[in-house]
Specification:
This protein is α+β, with helices and mostly antiparallel strands. It has helices at residues 2-18, 26-32, 48-63, 68-72, 101-112, and strands at 23-25, 77-85, 91-97, 120-122, 125-137.
Length: 141
Amino acid sequence: MKKLLLIFTIMISIPSFAQGDIILAKENANDKGITPIWPKCDRSRFSPAKCFDNKLRDHIVRNFQYPDVAVSQGLSGTVTVEFIINKKGKVEVLEVTGGHRYLQREAIRIIRAIPKMEPGKWGKKPIAIAYTVPITFEKPR
């Protein structure tokens, strides 16, 4: 009986912790039209989601630096970075996979350099939106 009561208590308490922080995947946020607004995208002729994608791509290209140690060691590969734009409009890196650690560090640096923006909103309530971005490192020639 005590075991059953413990399991029941745990199951009831889990949803109460999860209700405070809503995180939507990029695809769901785009479908509902609640994506974060990258600086100056509010004046763009594109939708906020399309403008965000364009600005993110431009940001990665402009800030990309192949690490010297990776060049000297001939490292290459694809690093996937999972991050959120939190309720305050700031980037939080959640997980980094693939590639060598030197390449992972560079990918994290690029993503952390994303500017603060207006967060996605559910009604008038700010919410976090999750993104997954692959960054491919090819050996310089």
